[in-house]
Protein backbone atom coordinates (compact mmCIF):
# COMPACT_ATOMS: atom_id res chain seq x y z
CA UNK A 1 0.00 0.00 0.00
CA UNK A 2 2.96 2.34 0.55
CA UNK A 3 3.81 1.90 -3.09
CA UNK A 4 0.21 2.60 -4.12
CA UNK A 5 -1.06 5.02 -1.46
CA UNK A 6 -4.21 5.88 -3.44
CA UNK A 7 -5.11 2.38 -4.61
CA UNK A 8 -8.49 2.36 -2.86
CA UNK A 9 -9.61 5.64 -4.48
CA UNK A 10 -8.23 4.62 -7.88
CA UNK A 11 -9.87 1.18 -7.79
CA UNK A 12 -13.26 2.69 -6.95
CA UNK A 13 -12.89 5.29 -9.71
CA UNK A 14 -11.85 2.63 -12.23
CA UNK A 15 -15.10 0.74 -11.68
CA UNK A 16 -17.12 3.89 -12.36
CA UNK A 17 -15.16 4.57 -15.56
CA UNK A 18 -15.58 0.94 -16.61
CA UNK A 19 -19.35 1.17 -16.20
CA UNK A 20 -19.41 4.41 -18.21
CA UNK A 21 -17.14 2.98 -20.91
CA UNK A 22 -18.93 -0.30 -21.69
CA UNK A 23 -22.08 1.09 -23.39
CA UNK A 24 -20.12 3.83 -25.12
CA UNK A 25 -17.52 1.40 -26.51
CA UNK A 26 -20.27 -0.83 -27.87
CA UNK A 27 -22.35 2.02 -29.26
CA UNK A 28 -19.44 3.71 -31.03
CA UNK A 29 -18.36 0.41 -32.60
CA UNK A 30 -21.82 -0.46 -33.91
CA UNK A 31 -22.36 3.07 -35.23
CA UNK A 32 -18.97 2.87 -36.97
CA UNK A 33 -20.05 -0.20 -38.93
CA UNK A 34 -17.67 -2.46 -37.00
CA UNK A 35 -18.16 -5.46 -34.68
CA UNK A 36 -19.08 -4.42 -31.15
CA UNK A 37 -16.04 -6.21 -29.72
CA UNK A 38 -13.69 -3.85 -31.59
CA UNK A 39 -14.96 -0.98 -29.47
CA UNK A 40 -14.11 -2.94 -26.33
CA UNK A 41 -10.65 -3.77 -27.70
CA UNK A 42 -9.95 -0.07 -28.28
CA UNK A 43 -11.11 0.67 -24.73
CA UNK A 44 -8.83 -2.06 -23.38
CA UNK A 45 -5.84 -0.67 -25.29
CA UNK A 46 -6.72 2.82 -24.07
CA UNK A 47 -6.47 1.56 -20.50
CA UNK A 48 -3.59 -0.90 -20.64
CA UNK A 49 -1.33 0.84 -23.18
CA UNK A 50 -2.09 4.56 -23.27
CA UNK A 51 -3.06 4.46 -19.60
CA UNK A 52 0.41 3.30 -18.57
CA UNK A 53 2.29 5.92 -20.58
CA UNK A 54 3.21 9.42 -19.35
CA UNK A 55 1.40 12.50 -20.56
CA UNK A 56 -1.86 13.07 -18.72
CA UNK A 57 -2.41 11.30 -15.42
CA UNK A 58 -6.22 11.24 -15.17
CA UNK A 59 -7.36 11.37 -18.80
CA UNK A 60 -9.05 8.19 -20.07
CA UNK A 61 -8.81 7.04 -23.69
CA UNK A 62 -11.00 4.82 -25.85
CA UNK A 63 -13.28 4.88 -28.90
CA UNK A 64 -14.99 8.25 -29.16
CA UNK A 65 -18.23 9.47 -30.67
CA UNK A 66 -16.22 12.29 -32.23
CA UNK A 67 -14.58 9.87 -34.70
CA UNK A 68 -17.65 7.74 -35.41
CA UNK A 69 -18.61 9.52 -38.63
CA UNK A 70 -15.07 9.41 -40.01
CA UNK A 71 -14.61 5.73 -39.11
CA UNK A 72 -17.94 4.81 -40.70
CA UNK A 73 -16.94 6.62 -43.90
CA UNK A 74 -13.59 4.80 -43.93
CA UNK A 75 -15.15 1.37 -43.35
CA UNK A 76 -17.83 2.05 -45.95
CA UNK A 77 -15.32 3.26 -48.56
CA UNK A 78 -12.36 0.93 -48.03
CA UNK A 79 -13.73 -2.01 -46.04
CA UNK A 80 -13.18 -3.21 -42.48
CA UNK A 81 -9.83 -4.97 -43.20
CA UNK A 82 -8.34 -1.63 -44.31
CA UNK A 83 -9.30 0.04 -41.02
CA UNK A 84 -6.36 -1.53 -39.19
CA UNK A 85 -3.88 -0.14 -41.73
CA UNK A 86 -5.43 3.33 -41.52
CA UNK A 87 -5.40 3.39 -37.71
CA UNK A 88 -1.85 1.99 -37.60
CA UNK A 89 -0.56 4.67 -39.98
CA UNK A 90 -2.43 7.38 -38.04
CA UNK A 91 -0.85 6.16 -34.79
CA UNK A 92 2.64 6.25 -36.32
CA UNK A 93 1.94 9.78 -37.57
CA UNK A 94 0.92 10.82 -34.06
CA UNK A 95 4.13 9.31 -32.66
CA UNK A 96 6.14 11.30 -35.18
CA UNK A 97 4.28 14.52 -34.32
CA UNK A 98 4.92 13.92 -30.64
CA UNK A 99 8.62 13.22 -31.26
CA UNK A 100 8.84 16.48 -33.23
CA UNK A 101 7.27 18.26 -30.24
CA UNK A 102 4.21 19.40 -32.19
CA UNK A 103 1.77 18.59 -29.38
CA UNK A 104 1.71 22.07 -27.91
CA UNK A 105 0.72 23.56 -31.28
CA UNK A 106 -2.65 21.84 -31.07
CA UNK A 107 -3.39 24.19 -28.18
CA UNK A 108 -3.35 27.02 -30.73
CA UNK A 109 -6.21 25.57 -32.76
CA UNK A 110 -9.27 27.79 -32.91
CA UNK A 111 -11.81 26.77 -30.28
CA UNK A 112 -14.62 27.69 -32.69
CA UNK A 113 -13.29 25.22 -35.27
CA UNK A 114 -13.09 22.46 -32.65
CA UNK A 115 -16.59 23.18 -31.37
CA UNK A 116 -17.85 23.42 -34.94
CA UNK A 117 -16.22 20.07 -35.71
CA UNK A 118 -17.92 18.47 -32.70
CA UNK A 119 -21.25 20.10 -33.60
CA UNK A 120 -21.04 18.79 -37.17
CA UNK A 121 -20.19 15.32 -35.90
CA UNK A 122 -23.09 15.55 -33.47
CA UNK A 123 -25.56 16.47 -36.22
CA UNK A 124 -24.46 13.66 -38.53
CA UNK A 125 -24.35 11.22 -35.60
CA UNK A 126 -27.87 12.08 -34.47
CA UNK A 127 -29.24 11.90 -38.01
CA UNK A 128 -27.63 8.51 -38.64
CA UNK A 129 -28.64 7.01 -35.31
CA UNK A 130 -32.28 8.08 -35.77
CA UNK A 131 -32.39 5.58 -38.63
CA UNK A 132 -30.66 2.96 -36.47
CA UNK A 133 -33.16 3.64 -33.69
CA UNK A 134 -35.97 2.64 -36.05
CA UNK A 135 -34.04 -0.31 -37.46
CA UNK A 136 -33.76 1.34 -40.88
CA UNK A 137 -30.77 1.71 -43.22
CA UNK A 138 -29.28 5.21 -43.15
CA UNK A 139 -28.24 7.03 -46.36
CA UNK A 140 -24.51 7.57 -46.85
CA UNK A 141 -24.14 11.38 -46.94
CA UNK A 142 -24.84 13.80 -44.12
CA UNK A 143 -27.24 15.89 -46.21
CA UNK A 144 -29.01 12.75 -47.44
CA UNK A 145 -29.43 11.61 -43.83
CA UNK A 146 -31.13 14.87 -42.88
CA UNK A 147 -33.29 15.10 -46.00
CA UNK A 148 -34.39 11.47 -45.65
CA UNK A 149 -35.64 11.83 -42.07
CA UNK A 150 -39.27 12.75 -42.97
CA UNK A 151 -39.57 9.67 -45.20
CA UNK A 152 -37.90 7.52 -42.56
CA UNK A 153 -40.36 8.80 -39.94
CA UNK A 154 -43.28 7.84 -42.17
CA UNK A 155 -41.82 4.36 -42.69
CA UNK A 156 -41.17 3.95 -38.96
CA UNK A 157 -44.72 4.89 -37.98
CA UNK A 158 -46.15 2.38 -40.43
CA UNK A 159 -44.59 -0.74 -38.92
CA UNK A 160 -45.01 -2.49 -35.57
CA UNK A 161 -41.37 -3.55 -35.27
CA UNK A 162 -40.01 -0.12 -36.17
CA UNK A 163 -42.30 1.51 -33.60
CA UNK A 164 -41.08 -0.92 -30.95
CA UNK A 165 -37.49 -0.15 -31.89
CA UNK A 166 -38.11 3.60 -31.69
CA UNK A 167 -39.76 3.19 -28.31
CA UNK A 168 -36.70 1.39 -26.93
CA UNK A 169 -34.39 4.13 -28.25
CA UNK A 170 -36.61 6.92 -26.93
CA UNK A 171 -36.85 5.20 -23.55
CA UNK A 172 -33.07 4.92 -23.42
CA UNK A 173 -32.63 8.64 -24.05
CA UNK A 174 -35.31 9.48 -21.48
CA UNK A 175 -33.66 7.32 -18.81
CA UNK A 176 -30.29 8.94 -19.46
CA UNK A 177 -31.75 12.44 -19.20
CA UNK A 178 -33.68 11.73 -15.99
CA UNK A 179 -31.29 9.33 -14.27
CA UNK A 180 -28.87 11.95 -12.93
CA UNK A 181 -31.74 13.64 -11.10
CA UNK A 182 -32.37 10.59 -8.95
CA UNK A 183 -31.41 11.09 -5.31
CA UNK A 184 -29.22 8.75 -3.29
CA UNK A 185 -26.99 5.90 -4.51
CA UNK A 186 -29.06 5.27 -7.68
CA UNK A 187 -27.99 8.61 -9.13
CA UNK A 188 -24.34 7.61 -8.80
CA UNK A 189 -24.80 4.77 -11.31
CA UNK A 190 -23.80 5.93 -14.82
CA UNK A 191 -26.95 6.86 -16.75
CA UNK A 192 -25.82 5.12 -19.95
CA UNK A 193 -25.29 1.84 -18.11
CA UNK A 194 -28.63 2.11 -16.31
CA UNK A 195 -30.41 2.86 -19.60
CA UNK A 196 -28.84 -0.13 -21.39
CA UNK A 197 -29.57 -2.49 -18.50
CA UNK A 198 -33.19 -1.37 -18.33
CA UNK A 199 -33.62 -1.61 -22.10
CA UNK A 200 -32.08 -5.09 -22.11
CA UNK A 201 -34.29 -6.25 -19.24
CA UNK A 202 -37.50 -4.86 -20.79
CA UNK A 203 -36.86 -6.24 -24.29
CA UNK A 204 -35.95 -9.66 -22.87
CA UNK A 205 -38.87 -9.82 -20.41
CA UNK A 206 -41.53 -8.77 -22.92
CA UNK A 207 -39.94 -10.32 -26.02
CA UNK A 208 -39.86 -6.97 -27.80
CA UNK A 209 -39.03 -7.56 -31.49
CA UNK A 210 -35.81 -5.53 -31.80
CA UNK A 211 -32.37 -6.31 -33.18
CA UNK A 212 -29.61 -7.08 -30.69
CA UNK A 213 -25.81 -6.91 -30.80
CA UNK A 214 -24.15 -9.55 -32.97
CA UNK A 215 -21.47 -11.39 -31.02
CA UNK A 216 -18.36 -12.70 -32.75
CA UNK A 217 -16.13 -13.24 -29.74
CA UNK A 218 -13.25 -11.07 -28.57
CA UNK A 219 -10.42 -12.98 -30.21
CA UNK A 220 -12.36 -13.69 -33.42
CA UNK A 221 -12.86 -9.93 -33.84
CA UNK A 222 -9.14 -9.21 -33.78
CA UNK A 223 -8.01 -8.84 -37.40
CA UNK A 224 -4.37 -7.73 -37.71
CA UNK A 225 -3.79 -6.04 -41.06
CA UNK A 226 -2.23 -8.40 -43.58
CA UNK A 227 0.26 -7.58 -46.28
CA UNK A 228 -2.54 -7.66 -48.85
CA UNK A 229 -4.24 -4.70 -47.16
CA UNK A 230 -1.11 -2.51 -47.27
CA UNK A 231 -1.92 -1.74 -50.89
CA UNK A 232 -4.61 0.71 -49.78
CA UNK A 233 -1.82 3.10 -48.80
CA UNK A 234 -1.36 3.94 -52.47
CA UNK A 235 -4.87 5.43 -52.55
CA UNK A 236 -4.85 9.22 -52.15
CA UNK A 237 -8.20 9.06 -50.37
CA UNK A 238 -6.76 6.66 -47.78
CA UNK A 239 -3.80 8.96 -47.18
CA UNK A 240 -6.20 11.85 -46.60
CA UNK A 241 -8.19 9.69 -44.17
CA UNK A 242 -5.00 8.83 -42.26
CA UNK A 243 -4.11 12.50 -41.89
CA UNK A 244 -7.69 13.27 -40.82
CA UNK A 245 -7.63 10.48 -38.21
CA UNK A 246 -4.30 11.67 -36.81
CA UNK A 247 -5.12 15.39 -36.71
CA UNK A 248 -8.68 15.10 -35.43
CA UNK A 249 -7.84 12.45 -32.83
CA UNK A 250 -4.87 14.52 -31.65
CA UNK A 251 -6.85 17.74 -31.47
CA UNK A 252 -9.71 16.09 -29.60
CA UNK A 253 -7.33 14.37 -27.16
CA UNK A 254 -5.29 17.47 -26.37
CA UNK A 255 -8.38 19.67 -26.18
CA UNK A 256 -9.81 17.13 -23.73
CA UNK A 257 -6.54 17.23 -21.76
CA UNK A 258 -6.84 20.98 -21.32
CA UNK A 259 -10.42 20.55 -20.08
CA UNK A 260 -9.48 17.73 -17.69
CA UNK A 261 -6.59 19.76 -16.25
CA UNK A 262 -9.16 22.34 -15.15
CA UNK A 263 -11.04 19.68 -13.19
CA UNK A 264 -8.24 18.66 -10.81
CA UNK A 265 -5.20 20.05 -8.99
CA UNK A 266 -2.82 17.18 -9.78
CA UNK A 267 0.04 17.09 -12.32
CA UNK A 268 -0.60 19.03 -15.53
CA UNK A 269 -0.64 17.36 -18.94
CA UNK A 270 2.64 17.18 -20.86
CA UNK A 271 1.25 17.64 -24.34
CA UNK A 272 4.03 16.14 -26.46
CA UNK A 273 4.17 13.03 -24.29
CA UNK A 274 0.38 12.72 -24.31
CA UNK A 275 0.43 12.95 -28.11
CA UNK A 276 2.96 10.11 -28.20
CA UNK A 277 0.87 8.08 -25.75
CA UNK A 278 -2.16 8.49 -28.01
CA UNK A 279 0.00 7.53 -30.99
CA UNK A 280 1.25 4.40 -29.23
CA UNK A 281 -2.32 3.42 -28.39
CA UNK A 282 -3.53 3.92 -31.94
CA UNK A 283 -0.56 1.98 -33.29
CA UNK A 284 -1.52 -1.01 -31.13
CA UNK A 285 -5.19 -0.59 -32.11
CA UNK A 286 -4.15 -0.63 -35.75
CA UNK A 287 -2.11 -3.81 -35.26
CA UNK A 288 -5.21 -5.43 -33.74
CA UNK A 289 -7.54 -4.13 -36.46
CA UNK A 290 -9.53 -2.15 -33.88
CA UNK A 291 -11.14 1.30 -33.88
CA UNK A 292 -9.07 4.46 -33.44
CA UNK A 293 -8.90 6.01 -30.00
CA UNK A 294 -8.89 9.47 -28.53
CA UNK A 295 -9.01 10.79 -25.02
CA UNK A 296 -12.71 10.99 -24.09
CA UNK A 297 -13.95 13.86 -21.95
CA UNK A 298 -16.99 11.90 -20.65
CA UNK A 299 -14.86 9.07 -19.26
CA UNK A 300 -12.11 11.45 -18.12
CA UNK A 301 -14.46 13.72 -16.18
CA UNK A 302 -16.14 10.65 -14.63
CA UNK A 303 -12.68 9.46 -13.57
CA UNK A 304 -11.88 12.77 -11.86
CA UNK A 305 -15.30 13.09 -10.24
CA UNK A 306 -15.10 9.54 -8.92
CA UNK A 307 -11.99 10.47 -6.93
CA UNK A 308 -9.16 9.07 -9.04
CA UNK A 309 -5.72 10.19 -7.90
CA UNK A 310 -3.25 8.49 -10.25
CA UNK A 311 -3.10 6.76 -13.62
CA UNK A 312 -3.82 3.44 -11.87
CA UNK A 313 -7.55 4.13 -12.24
CA UNK A 314 -7.46 4.24 -16.02
CA UNK A 315 -5.22 1.16 -16.21
CA UNK A 316 -7.62 -0.78 -13.97
CA UNK A 317 -10.59 0.29 -16.09
CA UNK A 318 -8.82 -1.41 -19.01
CA UNK A 319 -8.42 -4.57 -16.91
CA UNK A 320 -12.15 -4.64 -16.10
CA UNK A 321 -13.00 -4.17 -19.80
CA UNK A 322 -10.71 -7.07 -20.71
CA UNK A 323 -12.25 -9.37 -18.10
CA UNK A 324 -15.77 -8.41 -19.16
CA UNK A 325 -15.10 -8.98 -22.87
CA UNK A 326 -13.28 -12.27 -22.27
CA UNK A 327 -15.54 -13.82 -19.62
CA UNK A 328 -19.01 -12.49 -20.40
CA UNK A 329 -19.29 -12.22 -24.20
CA UNK A 330 -22.78 -13.77 -24.23
CA UNK A 331 -24.09 -10.74 -22.30
CA UNK A 332 -23.44 -8.58 -25.36
CA UNK A 333 -25.93 -10.57 -27.43
CA UNK A 334 -28.76 -9.45 -25.12
CA UNK A 335 -28.20 -5.72 -25.66
CA UNK A 336 -30.76 -4.17 -28.07
CA UNK A 337 -29.27 -2.07 -30.87
CA UNK A 338 -31.89 0.71 -30.47
CA UNK A 339 -30.59 1.24 -26.92
CA UNK A 340 -27.08 1.82 -28.25
CA UNK A 341 -28.54 4.17 -30.87
CA UNK A 342 -30.27 6.09 -28.07
CA UNK A 343 -26.97 6.44 -26.20
CA UNK A 344 -25.28 7.87 -29.28
CA UNK A 345 -28.19 10.23 -30.01
CA UNK A 346 -27.74 11.56 -26.48
CA UNK A 347 -23.95 11.77 -26.99
CA UNK A 348 -24.41 13.57 -30.32
CA UNK A 349 -26.77 16.09 -28.72
CA UNK A 350 -24.16 16.87 -26.07
CA UNK A 351 -21.57 17.53 -28.79
CA UNK A 352 -23.59 20.51 -30.09
CA UNK A 353 -22.68 23.65 -28.06
CA UNK A 354 -26.06 25.39 -28.04
CA UNK A 355 -25.29 27.71 -25.12
CA UNK A 356 -21.79 28.43 -26.38
CA UNK A 357 -23.12 29.40 -29.80
CA UNK A 358 -25.61 31.85 -28.29
CA UNK A 359 -22.84 33.41 -26.17
CA UNK A 360 -20.52 33.67 -29.17
CA UNK A 361 -23.23 35.26 -31.31
CA UNK A 362 -23.79 37.94 -28.70
CA UNK A 363 -20.10 38.73 -28.19
CA UNK A 364 -18.07 37.52 -31.18
CA UNK A 365 -20.18 36.93 -34.26
CA UNK A 366 -17.14 36.16 -36.38
CA UNK A 367 -16.28 33.18 -34.15
CA UNK A 368 -19.91 32.07 -34.19
CA UNK A 369 -19.83 32.16 -38.00
CA UNK A 370 -16.68 29.97 -38.03
CA UNK A 371 -18.41 27.46 -35.74
CA UNK A 372 -21.56 27.29 -37.86
CA UNK A 373 -19.72 27.10 -41.19
CA UNK A 374 -17.48 24.29 -39.88
CA UNK A 375 -20.47 22.30 -38.66
CA UNK A 376 -22.48 22.82 -41.86
CA UNK A 377 -19.44 21.94 -44.01
CA UNK A 378 -18.96 18.65 -42.18
CA UNK A 379 -22.62 17.78 -42.74
CA UNK A 380 -22.57 18.89 -46.40
CA UNK A 381 -19.18 17.49 -47.46
CA UNK A 382 -17.26 15.28 -45.03
CA UNK A 383 -15.29 15.49 -41.82
CA UNK A 384 -11.81 16.22 -43.18
CA UNK A 385 -12.80 18.81 -45.77
CA UNK A 386 -15.27 20.40 -43.35
CA UNK A 387 -12.52 20.95 -40.76
CA UNK A 388 -10.20 22.36 -43.46
CA UNK A 389 -12.93 24.80 -44.51
CA UNK A 390 -13.39 25.85 -40.89
CA UNK A 391 -9.64 26.33 -40.39
CA UNK A 392 -9.36 28.35 -43.60
CA UNK A 393 -12.25 30.59 -42.58
CA UNK A 394 -10.72 31.02 -39.11
CA UNK A 395 -7.39 32.07 -40.63
CA UNK A 396 -9.11 34.53 -42.97
CA UNK A 397 -11.13 35.99 -40.10
CA UNK A 398 -8.01 36.38 -37.97
CA UNK A 399 -6.09 37.96 -40.84
CA UNK A 400 -8.96 40.37 -41.52
CA UNK A 401 -9.23 41.40 -37.87
CA UNK A 402 -5.47 41.80 -37.46
CA UNK A 403 -5.10 43.89 -40.64
CA UNK A 404 -6.88 46.96 -39.35
CA UNK A 405 -5.57 50.09 -40.99
CA UNK A 406 -6.46 53.72 -40.41
CA UNK A 407 -6.22 56.40 -43.12
CA UNK A 408 -6.18 60.09 -42.21
CA UNK A 409 -6.27 62.65 -45.04
CA UNK A 410 -5.45 66.27 -44.22
CA UNK A 411 -6.16 68.85 -46.95
CA UNK A 412 -5.69 72.48 -45.93
CA UNK A 413 -6.71 73.75 -49.34
CA UNK A 414 -3.19 74.85 -50.21
CA UNK A 415 0.09 73.01 -50.23
CA UNK A 416 0.46 69.23 -50.29
CA UNK A 417 -2.30 66.81 -49.27
CA UNK A 418 -1.10 64.84 -46.25
CA UNK A 419 -2.04 61.16 -45.94
CA UNK A 420 -1.22 59.32 -42.73
CA UNK A 421 -1.44 55.48 -42.60
CA UNK A 422 -1.34 53.55 -39.31
CA UNK A 423 -2.01 49.96 -38.22
CA UNK A 424 -1.40 46.88 -40.39
CA UNK A 425 -1.57 47.34 -44.14
CA UNK A 426 -2.18 43.97 -45.81
CA UNK A 427 -3.70 42.90 -49.12
CA UNK A 428 -7.05 42.42 -47.35
CA UNK A 429 -7.29 46.21 -46.81
CA UNK A 430 -5.79 47.16 -50.17
CA UNK A 431 -9.12 48.08 -51.88
CA UNK A 432 -9.92 50.56 -49.13
CA UNK A 433 -6.45 52.12 -49.25
CA UNK A 434 -6.39 52.47 -53.04
CA UNK A 435 -9.94 53.85 -53.20
CA UNK A 436 -8.92 56.64 -50.82
CA UNK A 437 -5.63 57.41 -52.58
CA UNK A 438 -7.14 57.41 -56.08
CA UNK A 439 -9.82 59.88 -54.97
CA UNK A 440 -7.16 62.50 -54.12
CA UNK A 441 -6.83 65.51 -56.48
CA UNK A 442 -4.55 64.59 -59.39
CA UNK A 443 -3.03 68.08 -59.64
CA UNK A 444 -1.93 68.37 -56.00
CA UNK A 445 1.30 67.12 -54.41
CA UNK A 446 0.84 64.34 -51.85
CA UNK A 447 2.83 63.46 -48.74
CA UNK A 448 2.29 59.81 -47.76
CA UNK A 449 3.41 59.05 -44.19
CA UNK A 450 3.90 55.33 -43.45
CA UNK A 451 5.92 55.69 -40.23
CA UNK A 452 3.02 54.56 -38.00
CA UNK A 453 2.46 51.27 -39.84
CA UNK A 454 3.24 48.19 -37.77
CA UNK A 455 3.22 45.95 -40.83
CA UNK A 456 3.26 46.56 -44.59
CA UNK A 457 3.01 43.43 -46.73
CA UNK A 458 4.48 43.00 -50.19
CA UNK A 459 1.16 43.45 -52.01
CA UNK A 460 0.47 46.78 -50.30
CA UNK A 461 4.03 48.03 -50.73
CA UNK A 462 3.97 47.28 -54.47
CA UNK A 463 0.50 48.81 -54.93
CA UNK A 464 1.53 52.01 -53.12
CA UNK A 465 4.65 52.33 -55.27
CA UNK A 466 2.62 51.92 -58.47
CA UNK A 467 0.05 54.46 -57.30
CA UNK A 468 2.81 56.95 -56.46
CA UNK A 469 4.24 56.57 -59.98
CA UNK A 470 0.84 57.11 -61.60
CA UNK A 471 -0.04 60.11 -59.42
CA UNK A 472 3.21 61.89 -60.13
CA UNK A 473 2.46 63.56 -63.46
CA UNK A 474 4.56 66.05 -65.48
CA UNK A 475 3.00 69.06 -63.75
CA UNK A 476 2.73 67.48 -60.29
CA UNK A 477 5.66 66.99 -57.90
CA UNK A 478 6.48 63.34 -57.07
CA UNK A 479 4.63 61.78 -54.16
CA UNK A 480 6.71 62.14 -51.04
CA UNK A 481 6.89 58.80 -49.17
CA UNK A 482 8.00 58.76 -45.54
CA UNK A 483 8.86 55.40 -44.01
CA UNK A 484 10.58 54.24 -40.88
TrEMBL record:
Lineage, top ranks: Bacteria, Bacillati, Actinomycetota, Actinomycetes, Kitasatosporales
Compartment annotation: Membrane
Record keywords: Membrane, Transmembrane, Transmembrane helix
Residue intervals passing through the bilayer: 12-31, 78-100, 112-132, 162-179, 191-212, 232-260, 319-349, 369-396
UniProt xrefs under InterPro entries: SLC26A/SulP_dom, SLC26A/SulP_fam
Chief site of localization: membrane
Species whose genome carries this gene: Streptomyces variabilis
Residue ranges of domain SLC26A/SulP transporter in the record: 7-374
Tagged with keyword Transmembrane: yes
Keyword Nucleus among record annotations: no
Designated name of the protein: Sulfate transporter
UniProt-listed Pfam families: Sulfate_transp
Protein topology in the membrane: Multi-pass membrane protein
Amino acid sequence: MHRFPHLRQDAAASLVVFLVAVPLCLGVAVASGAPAELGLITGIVGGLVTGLLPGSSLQVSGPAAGLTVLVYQAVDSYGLPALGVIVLAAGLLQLAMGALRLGRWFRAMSLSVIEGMLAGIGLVLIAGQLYAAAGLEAPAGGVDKLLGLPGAAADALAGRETLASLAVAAGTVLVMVLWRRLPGPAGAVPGALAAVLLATAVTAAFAVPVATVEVRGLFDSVQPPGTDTLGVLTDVGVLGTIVAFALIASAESLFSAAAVDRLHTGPRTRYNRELMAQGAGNTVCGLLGALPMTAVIVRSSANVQAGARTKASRVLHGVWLLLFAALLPSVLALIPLPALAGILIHAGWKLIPFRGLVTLWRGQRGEALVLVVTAVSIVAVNMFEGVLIGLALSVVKTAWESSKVKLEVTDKGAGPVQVHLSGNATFLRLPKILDTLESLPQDRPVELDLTALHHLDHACSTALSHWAERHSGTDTPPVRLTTR
